[in-house]
Amino acid sequence: MNQPQPDPTPRGPSYQGRLLPRPADEVVDQGLDFDVRTLLSRRRMLQALGLGAGMVALAACGVDAATTSDTTTSSGSGLTEIPDETAGPYPGDGSNGPDVLEESGIVRTDIRSSFGTSTTTAAGVPLQVELTLLDLAKDAVPFAGVAVYAWHCDREGRYSMYSSGVEDENYLRGVQVTDADGKVRFTSIVPACYTGRWPHIHFEVYPDEASITDASSAIATSQLALPKDMVDAVYATTGYEASVANLAQLTLESDNVFGDDGAEHQLAAVTGDVTAGYVATLSVPIDTATEPTGGGAPGGGGGGAPGGTRPSGAPSAPGTPG
């Protein structure tokens, strides 16, 4: 800290040629007028040395400009891109057979019921899913106008269009287009836990609604994980009994999709209860400057969780659980 120095003239203590209005106090306590005059003196000195306005601001803040460096990320946001994941064996996007994205009516908010030739509604505890997409290639601004296709299993652990007994259903599948805030919202139910997989919701992101009919055009494929305290409460209710034993065999760290980081970037924030239903929210940063590595599905119309205790009718064909 600079201390006041005696002025050689009889005018009183000064600092850098300026009288101190409060001689008994430190230089930093001399008042706004003194500080402003000090700042102006520094600015004139730096400008005389040819330094820019940014360096002036650093000097005014007491920062040694010569030792500063740029530590921001390439996007300037510091966010991590949502991990790319497999679409699993039951995407229904045409990549392995069934294709719900070609059907009229797939763009909808409420995905609990089938549409087209069936109106069967999937039973279960209500769940609102809200995803906020961010464009990392543009400093994490809201990613407006992109299409999000979401799907998941039902309360019994079955995937519509694939599992025995629900091959002719297309419930729990739907597309929404992000609004100006980069948000999409789906009305659904809490999915079951089947053998080998933590409770999850799949989603694919497409550049726009017109692109959804070509699975290869997806710019991101990932999964949302549901928190344990929430699914514990749900699985204690009628209809989810088989999920209790399946969940007891798993942790986020042992799951074959979320296990690499414990779903650090994919675990939803959840509010609500089993009576009123739940709301699950997740931010989904996407970097279009990177090449997507997720997506894809095993060939054929099956795929599923091998062996073990699973809800009746749950996926049982060979393949990696998705």
Quick recap of the structure?
Residues 121-196 form the Intradiol ring-cleavage dioxygenases domain. With 322 residues, the chain is α+β, with helices and mostly antiparallel strands.
Question: What can you tell me about this protein's structure?
Answer:
By secondary structure, the chain is of the alpha+beta class. The protein folds into two domains: 14-67, no CATH class; 100-286, Aromatic compound dioxygenase (Protocatechuate 3,4-Dioxygenase, subunit A). Helix content is 13%, strand content 19%. The strands form three sheets. Strands 3, 4, 7, 10 and 11 form a five-stranded mixed sheet that branches. Strands 6-5-8-9 form a four-stranded antiparallel sheet, with no helix packed on it. Helix 1 packs antiparallel against helix 2 (53-60).
